[in-house]
Amino acid sequence: xxxxxxxxxxxxxxxxxxxxxxxxxxxxxxxxxxxxxxxxxxxxxxxxxxxxxxxxxxxxxxxxxxxxxxxxxxxxxxxxxxxxxxxxxxxxxxxxxxxxxxxxxxxxxxxxxxxxxxxxxxxxxxxxxxxxxxxxxxxxxxxxxxxxxxxxxxxxxxxxxxxxxxxxxxxxxxxxxxxxxxxxxxxxxxxxxxxxxxxxxxxxxxxxxxxxxxxxxxxxxxxxxxxxxxxxxxxxxxxxxxxxxxxxxxxxxxxxxxxxxxxxxxxxxxxxxxxxxxxxxxxxxxxxxxxxxxxxxxxxxxxxxxxxxxxxxxxxxxxxxxxxxxxxxxxxxxxxxxxxxxxx
Length: 344
Ligand code: HPA
Ligand code: ZN
Hints:
The structure is a single chain. It contains 17 helices and eight strands. It is α/β, with parallel strands linked by helices. It has a single domain (5-330), classed as Metal-dependent hydrolases (TIM Barrel, Alpha-Beta Barrel), CATH 3.20.20. Strands 1-2-3-4-5-6-7-8 form an eight-stranded parallel β-sheet. Strand 3 (134-142), helix 8 and strand 4 form a beta-alpha-beta unit. The longest helix has 20 residues, at 321-340. It is globular. The chain starts with a helix and ends with a helix. The site of hypoxanthine has 10 residues, from loops.
């Protein structure tokens, strides 16, 4: 039977697990906030900003991304940014989001930690009440900064333990191995935080091993370079450690030269708990639906693979078991008619 996969992808209940809230800053909002906060941008128009979004690697993106984040100054800015993102997710039938924020990007410019968290949390809470979108908030340490700076940031987060469930690690991978943050992650786990880390995006498979063995992470963000290490593939499959893969990001940052050459389909077929996510959608050309649509089309994914990706995403969430079961039921109920063949 022929299914219209595009229509199914647009309508299916979705989960986002790898999303940097600062990476949802669209050029229009960047300009509006620059004006209202009196921040001078190195661009004259929205078109000029979009034209600057040509990246040669991770670092070339990060330079622009951190510069853009300078317009975010007040609690209202963080609220507006998060609210706009969640409104889009409501339109895309996203049921649950786990989003990263990078406090050091802001505290390093003199914006207080609580200004950032209060704004983001208020929008997340509203989305839960108004639209039933559940969420988790992940504090991500910038790995190009010192372990000491990360530890200070962790201490600031302790007051917000009810709102922040998880800590992660992002920014420039090259030269900043996970083991640099061993002590910080030990302290974080002792305080009850779940841990995740970006690894194996640009960095070698050894960084994925370090994240697993030293930082004891529950998920790997990206992880596509696991493909180079067969023992690692076996480990990830055996323990069903989720990979939060971001296909459009990987192409924009030249981890893969073309979406048709992405290894997501292969990793999935090897039985790994692969998920599709959007990373920094304002910079990489698409939110979660667009990531699914383009990846399905480029790799020729079939319905069974789309169902598997959707179920993986629910399994990979940090929801509690009852919430997880409810969401899995919702996903399975959506797909059931297509699988049993009663819908043409
Ligand atoms: N990798 C590392 N750091 C990041 C990313 C990413 O893809 N996006 C935002 N910060
Ligand atoms: Zn990321």
